[in-house]
Amino acid sequence: MQEPLFRINPDRNVPWNDLPDLPIHEDLYRTVAIMEQLGNAKSALGRLHGRSVAIPNQGILINSISLQEAKASSEIENIFTTDDELYQAYSEKGEDETVKGAPKEVLRYREALWEGHQHLKNHGDFNEEYFIRLYQTIKQTNDGIRPTSALIYIKQGGTGPNAGTAIYTPPRGKGIVEEKLKNLADFVNDDQLYPIDPLIKMAIAHYQFEMIHPFRDGNGRAGRIFNINILTQKGLLDLPILYLSRYIIDNKSDYYSLLAGVTQRARWESWILFMLKAIEATANLTFNKINDILAAEAAILQTIEAETKIRKPENLMQMIFTQPLTKVSHLTDVKLYAEATARNYLNELCDLGILEKKTISGHHYYLNLELYRILSE
Ligand SMILES: Nc1ncnc2c1ncn2[C@@H]1O[C@H](COP(=O)(O)OP(=O)(O)OP(=O)(O)O)[C@@H](O)[C@H]1O
Ligand SMILES: [Mg+2]
User: Fold this and answer.
1) I need a labelling partner for 94 at 20 to 30 A (CA). Which of 24, 190, 233, 327 fits?
2) Interacting residues of 249 by C-beta distance below 8 A, sequence separation 6+
3) Range of the structural domain that residue 325 is part of
């Protein structure tokens, strides 16, 4: 009999130690449908990249948009927070004792994303330590790869008759997870040995990471950060601004069943198409969001210049667009204005209907109404 292109998992209840190493056979992804969709995804991503490098203040994008990514990704794991709670937590940098629970956990996701980005800047390549750092930051723990004694498996969700039964059991045994992670990192790092389009690489790598399932928990979130970090490491974006979690959560059951489709039926094409569509749709959405934010910033700047005597209005714009909730101390900490001036200016923006004063757990904030609206759309 002819050798299959991809050896599927024979038993969902048994650790899949024969999870095939990468790369996968190229006939599995060299299809007309994938090449077409790859073109769409690449041009959407290229347009976003072009737009993002032309933005003077990149901090605006990264702060505001990555908060939304952290929120969406954490929702997949049933960690829910409201925008208000999250923005407050962020304004306090998570240090205030009133910040706990879900918003704190969401901020940790965001922190892990930056840590991953920084790790790659410092080390250049993906390695075992990279993955462990993500996990440790997401879960706030000191342990690492799951021990062989941990009986981890992916359960059927919901309340149906099969709820709680195994859908998949990841590899288990001495050194096996480490070996598979090494193979995965090599596959992503080495573009000479594995000259595959980076977006297709990302889709394959995400699947592989989820199947290795190296940690006790947080594998979904670590895998979603891995996606983002691949895009910047491969130079498709300068900064981590393409966040796929919203798309994944909106198509959660497809996401799960397409991963299972590869494992159980070798259906690589549908999985890769899903990820390429996610990239295209998200790049377009982010492109529009960036334009909306920049247009709002320009319009408000114009109003301020025309109707007030506020000094250094451009710097003030930068501050109130970096996050939705601004505090007086944000302006004084960077020595933009003296405290009384900062307060007067923020109040002036309230009178103009640009900001709205809010008191949350005894702290005073100024909400940027337009930014808040754009981010929550
Ligand atoms: N058939 C499947 N059904 C559900 N999840 C699957 C399946 N196959 C693989 N997975 C992966 O397992 C992840 C969940 O693993 P884990 O609980 O360790 O991660 P998490 O970050 O805590 O969860 P979540 O992804 O829900 O936020 C999913 O996000 C998905 O990527
Ligand atoms: Mg979990």
Assistant:
1) 233
2) 72, 73, 75, 76
3) 308-376
Residue with token string 């796929």 = 244
CA 73, 78, 84, 90 torsion: positive or negative?
negative
**CATH code for position 351:** 1.10.10.10
CA distances from 134 to 130, 196, 202, 221 (A): 7, 25, 17, 9
**101 and 163 within one domain:** yes
Which residue shows structure tokens 């981010």?
Answer: 375
Ligand 1, residues 259, 267, 275: which to mutate, most atoms within 8 A of Cβ?
259
pLDDT in tens, 72-87: 888 887 888 888 888 8
Q: How far apart are CA 137 and CA 110, in angstroms?
A: 9
Which tokens is 281 given?
């749709």
For residue 219, report the distance from its CA to the centre of ligand 2, in Å: 7
Look at residue 368 in the predicted model and tell me its pLDDT.
Answer: 95
pTM: 0.93
Ligand 1 contact, 214 CB (< 6 A): no
